């Protein structure tokens, strides 16, 4: 080893080297430690904090966006409900159909627009013609045909049953629109479209935002590709969320501009922290390290631990006793968490409580009683014809009525009251046999006072109780089955039992299996001849629907037809039966040239606004002469809507289709019906023949009915003929035709043709 190497080796321990000066060694060591320390303190830690700030900021943006969307969706639901109230109103239905001209003045006044918080309203007739287009201009209602037509053009071609709502852009102006099909009070018929819209000006939008002080909101047109990314600017964040349109892709977006308070506070804190680090490091690195450890690093560590704990316990908060900017940041974050938790509590309360009555909502009952094993009874109470009451006395009376009903039910430790639907209340008891459901309903039906007098209601209830612990959800389902049974049977109160459950399950099975029965070739038609009493020749056949299920066997029409009517499948079944009967009888006319077919019509079908048009279109599509067809309707069907049914029947008769009044005499039939209805044939109920041969009032009615029908040039058909003596009696009375087992049982058409030959 040479001398130079030795010198370099001992430079540290030279008398003038660093090893001889403790201060110099400290300075060198501090310098060595300072570089990575400063790198950590000035770069790494601020970067981690800034990333955390950005994460909090993104969560803040998402929460504010959710709040703003909920505020706008709340207004959208309010306009939709306002539209629903007008659309399910017979007065609106009549106005759309060209009747009730006074409706425009009565229903579209300034108070309607102001009370409903809408700016535009429109109604179209069933054929699509615009019959009303108005808007509110200051304190006057003026025409607005151009704007309303533009709004209507945004609707989908086929309006869903529950209507549509959404935001659209018309001529640079944003609108919040709700539209629904117009029906009568009972929900029947389709009478055009009811539309209400609110202009979403910047002022209106600001009024809808509950937290407008925390951000600014505006509506913007969306580009073709949509939108939704966040744009971070130095002092604000801009986010755009698309709003659902009436149809097609979204046209508008809700743009929120949110000040970057957390970001700016964090940046300010970081710069101050850097300045402190630099100043303290220049004065005394060791003191600064102690300060950093005690006043910064420990606080940040505690904040991290607190943040992790907040994820597990939302009630926990950051330690905010620190008086530095970190304490300000902690208090800011704590305030933000308190605000969000309060907002969540408000939303939870609105979800679990009914705003009108203060009673629990369905969700609130489920949450309250989910693990409550003391529940023993559930009474569901429904107010029938609530829409009709609203039309008669106004929505304010209906609201007061529901509040009064809930108040009469009361609430204490022994039972809980809830509002489970718009017209339904629930009384949940915690002790078996605690209440008498009949007495409860009787108490609720006590008259309600009005200025004009008193209103008496007839309520319908469903009750279920158990002596043993039963989950609340199961007990509520049982009470719902009992309520539906009471509604179906027109009873005052339904009490759940196992037989009811089996009937409900069987009905549900039928409803499920009935879907696609025609495609699976499980449905078939049989025919029963109608015979001329003078010549004995068959003049027509009545088509009767049959269902042969592969596992359930032969399901009687009296069982599956009501199921089809309740589930809405009767429309498809009715169309299938009509088409099948026309095809088969048209094919049989090669062997039986004068064959005619009678097809029964369900009440649900006959109350369709376009029933007559559908029948005539079917005849045209199948190229069947309209005189081949006779439609059979019942008195009860006609009385549900005499005007609509008579309009259908007149249109069918004008086209050559014959109309028969079926089961005449089975209910409270009046002979005056024969003079008022557009009929060709009267089919006498079989109950006439059971008593017609006796000298009874019903026998006299049979004779008078046949005589009156002859005077009115109506043909008469006696149903249920089972023996020769009945035929002789009918001939003596002048009846024209007969139908029954004595002539022929219902058979397939091929078998009947063979018998006829």
TrEMBL record:
Residues 507-757 form the EAL domain. One of its GO terms (cellular component) is membrane. Signal peptide: none annotated. One of its GO terms (biological process) is signal transduction. Residues 294-345 form the HAMP domain. Residues 374-498 form the GGDEF domain. The keyword GTP-binding does not apply. One of its GO terms (molecular function) is cyclic-guanylate-specific phosphodiesterase activity. It comes from the Bacteria. The chain crosses the membrane at residues 26-48, 275-294. Keywords: Membrane, Transmembrane, Transmembrane helix. This is EAL domain-containing protein. It comes from Deinococcus indicus.
């Amino acid at each position: 080893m040479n001398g130079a190497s030795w010198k370099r080796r001992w430079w540290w321990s030279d008398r003038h080297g660093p090893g001889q000066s403790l201060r110099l060694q400290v300075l060198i060591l501090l310098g060595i430690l300072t570089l990575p320390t400063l790198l950590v303190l000035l770069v790494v830690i601020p970067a981690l904090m800034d990333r955390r700030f950005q994460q909090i900021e993104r969560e803040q943006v998402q929460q504010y966006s959710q709040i703003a969307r909920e505020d706008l969706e709340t207004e959208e639901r309010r306009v939709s409900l306002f539209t629903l109230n007008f659309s399910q109103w017979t007065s609106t239905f009549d106005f759309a159909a060209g009747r009730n001209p006074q409706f425009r003045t009565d229903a579209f006044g300034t108070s309607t627009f102001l009370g409903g918080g809408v700016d535009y309203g429109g109604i179209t007739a069933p054929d699509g013609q615009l019959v009303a287009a108005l808007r509110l201009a200051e304190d006057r209602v003026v025409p607005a045909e151009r704007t309303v037509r533009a709004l209507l053009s945004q609707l989908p071609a086929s309006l869903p049953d529950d209507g549509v709502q959404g935001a659209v852009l018309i001529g640079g102006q944003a609108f919040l629109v709700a539209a629904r099909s117009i029906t009568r009070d009972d929900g029947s018929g389709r009478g055009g479209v009811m539309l209400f819209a609110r202009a979403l000006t910047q002022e209106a939008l600001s009024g809808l935002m509950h937290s407008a002080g925390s951000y600014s909101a505006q509506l913007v047109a969306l580009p073709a590709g949509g939108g939704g990314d966040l744009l971070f600017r130095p002092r604000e964040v801009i986010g755009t969320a698309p709003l659902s349109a009436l149809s097609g892709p979204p046209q508008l977006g809700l743009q929120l501009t949110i000040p970057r308070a957390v970001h700016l506070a964090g940046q300010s804190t970081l710069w101050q922290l850097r300045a402190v680090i630099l100043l303290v490091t220049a004065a005394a690195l060791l003191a600064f390290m102690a300060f950093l450890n005690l006043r910064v690093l420990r606080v940040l560590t505690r904040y991290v631990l607190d943040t992790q704990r907040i994820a597990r316990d939302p009630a926990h908060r950051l330690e905010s006793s620190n008086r530095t900017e970190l304490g300000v940041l902690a208090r800011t974050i704590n305030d933000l968490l308190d605000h969000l938790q309060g907002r969540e509590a408000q939303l939870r309360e609105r979800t679990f409580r009914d705003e009108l009555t203060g009673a629990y909502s369905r969700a609130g009952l489920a949450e309250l009683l989910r693990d409550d094993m003391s529940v023993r009874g559930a009474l569901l109470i429904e107010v029938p014809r609530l829409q009709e009451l609203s039309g008669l006395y106004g929505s304010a009376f209906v609201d007061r009525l529901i509040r009064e009903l809930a108040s009469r039910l009361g609430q204490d430790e022994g039972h809980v009251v809830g509002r489970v639907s718009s017209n339904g209340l629930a009384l949940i008891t915690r002790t078996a046999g605690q209440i008498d459901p009949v007495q409860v309903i009787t108490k609720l039906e006590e008259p309600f006072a009005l200025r004009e007098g008193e209103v008496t209601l007839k309520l319908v209830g469903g009750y279920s109780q158990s002596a043993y612990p039963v989950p609340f959800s199961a007990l509520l389902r049982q009470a719902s089955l009992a309520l539906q049974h009471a509604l179906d049977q027109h009873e005052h109160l339904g009490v759940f039992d196992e037989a009811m459950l089996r009937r409900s399950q069987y009905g549900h099975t039928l409803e499920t299996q009935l879907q696609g029965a025609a495609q699976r070739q499980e449905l078939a038609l049989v025919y029963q001849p109608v015979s001329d009493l003078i010549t004995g020749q068959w003049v027509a056949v009545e088509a009767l629907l049959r269902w042969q299920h592969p596992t359930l066997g032969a399901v009687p029409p009296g069982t599956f037809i009501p199921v089809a009517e309740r589930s809405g499948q009767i429309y498809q079944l009715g169309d299938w039966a009509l088409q099948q009967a026309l095809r088969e009888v048209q094919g049989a006319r090669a062997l039986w040239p004068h064959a005619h077919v009678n097809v029964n019509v369900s009440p649900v079908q006959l109350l369709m606004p376009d029933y007559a048009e559908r029948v005539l279109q079917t005849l045209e599509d199948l190229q069947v002469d309209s005189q081949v067809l006779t439609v059979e309707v019942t008195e009860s069907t006609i009385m549900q809507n005499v005007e609509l049914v008579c309009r259908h029947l007149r249109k069918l008769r004008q086209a050559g289709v014959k109309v028969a009044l079926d089961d005449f005499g089975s209910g409270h039939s009046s002979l005056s019906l024969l003079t008022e209805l557009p009929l060709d044939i009267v089919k006498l109920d079989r109950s006439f023949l059971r008593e017609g041969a006796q000298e009874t009032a019903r026998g006299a009615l049979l004779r008078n009915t046949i005589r009156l029908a002859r005077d009115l040039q109506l043909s008469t058909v006696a149903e249920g003929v089972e023996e020769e003596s009945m035929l002789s009696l009918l001939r003596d009375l002048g009846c024209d035709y007969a139908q029954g087992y004595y002539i022929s049982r219902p058979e397939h058409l091929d078998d009947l043709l063979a018998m006829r030959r």
